[in-house]
Amino acid sequence: MYSNWIVKELKEELRKRGASLRGKKVDLVERLELYDQNFNFGRAERVDGHDPKMDLPLGDTYRDINSNTVLPPIDKTALRHYLNYTLKKSSMANELYESRHLLTARSSVVGDYTYVKGHCRKTMRNLQYEVNIKLHKDGNPVESHCECPAGSAVNAVCKHVAVLLLGIENMVHEKFILLHEVCTQKLQQFHIPNKFYTGTPVHAEKMSKKKKGNDSWLTK
Ligand SMILES: [Zn+2]
């Protein structure tokens, strides 16, 4: 039966069953037949063999979080419940947040949910991970995902998720968020004088000759 299928269809069917996609077409056909004969080896049927991802709003709907942003009223209790960290781990996350490991924090509201997207600096390296958190309007985190190896699936509780949650909580209760300031964030100002010259231009011959000696060769 499977021999009439094209490779793409075979792979799709194998993926649904959580089976390996390796090998030539004959291998794929044989594997599917084996899976049929053995009732999928007791494996649960998976709709998608990939790592489940969060459904996120479009990138251009996000706005930078500032003190005027309306955020769900997340508190430290909700945060602790969601992360379920040990005391040591939560103080470590706090330390990361306070040493400004959070680079950006933006939010987008869709119905009852607020999506927060942040970038968190990787410890000791100049790399960053994208973190996404979905919050219900009552203040409870519903889903979270991070790009780091520990942040897969839709309920990741890695330290980067913790740092972003701490930032949101901080903004909700203290109206500020600690972000890492990058050197390009501030406009360079070295060409702007501290004081502007307000006098009128002076003719060269009327200029005071305070520096004698140095310019004597100009006048002969
Ligand atoms: Zn992470």
From TrEMBL:
InterPro entries, sorted: SAP_dom, SAP_dom_sf, Znf_SWIM
Q: What is this protein called?
A: SWIM-type domain-containing protein
Which Gene Ontology molecular function entries are recorded, alphabetically? Answer: zinc ion binding
Q: Which domain of life is it from?
A: Eukaryota
**SWIM-type domain sequence ranges:** 129-169
User: What keywords appear on the UniProt entry?
Assistant: Metal-binding, Zinc, Zinc-finger
Q: Where is the SAP domain?
A: 2-36
Transport is among the record's keywords: no
